[in-house]
Design goal:
CATH architecture: Roll
Radius of gyration: 19 Å
Number of strands: 7
Structural class: alpha+beta
Number of helices: 4
Strand order of the largest sheet: 2-3-4-7-6-5
Distance between the termini: 61 Å
Strand content: 25-35%
Order of helices and strands: HEEEEHEEHHE
């Protein structure tokens, strides 16, 4: 009886685990991320060439497609616009078990800073830089508190609870 129970328990654990791993691996080849899994490189869409856009149209957006090059993966991230400057935010970075959607931030810190974002089907080459000081942190905290219902302070950002990355223009790769 115990062996049958262990077999059943093994099957109940193994089948969903294999299914999740399979889906995750499949998405690594997709053009962009899904709501749940990281995706492959952002392949479609014209590369933007021109003056830095006014990012205010992203002020109310809940997500942005971000691709990092080391490793080449794409993620859905939370955009924040402060004084025309575009940032991406990774919440809950001080948690022991970070959300799987926050792992991109670790890759961004370890990488070479090269990134690509896709907005409304247009790709923008970017440099991604973690911001840990400066006046922009107050603005980011205010936007997160007011617009995204995420009560945030400058100190929670400096303390590592939330990581902020500025996305600035870079030359095409």
């Amino acid at each position: 009886m115990l062996s049958k129970l262990l077999q059943l328990l093994g099957i109940l654990v193994l089948v969903p685990t294999v299914a999740i791993v399979t889906l995750q691996r499949k998405h690594l080849d997709d053009d962009g991320p899904s709501l749940v899994f990281a995706g492959g490189p952002l392949l479609t869409g014209a590369i933007y060439r021109g003056r830095e856009p006014d990012w205010s149209f992203l002020a109310e957006a809940d997500q942005l497609e971000l691709q990092l090059y080391d490793p080449v993966r794409s993620y859905l991230v939370l955009p924040v616009v402060v004084n025309g400057r575009l940032s991406a935010v990774a919440p809950k970075m001080d948690a022991v078990l970070r959300t799987f959607r926050s792992h991109w931030a670790e890759h961004a810190v370890q990488g070479d800073g090269a990134a690509l974002i896709r907005v409304n089907g247009v790709r923008y080459p970017r440099t991604i830089t973690r911001i840990v000081q400066g006046g922009v942190l107050d603005g980011v905290a205010g936007v997160l508190t007011r617009q995204h219902n995420m009560p945030t302070t400058r100190q929670s950002i400096i303390g590592g609870n939330l990581w902020v990355f500025e996305l600035t223009p870079r030359a095409s790769r």
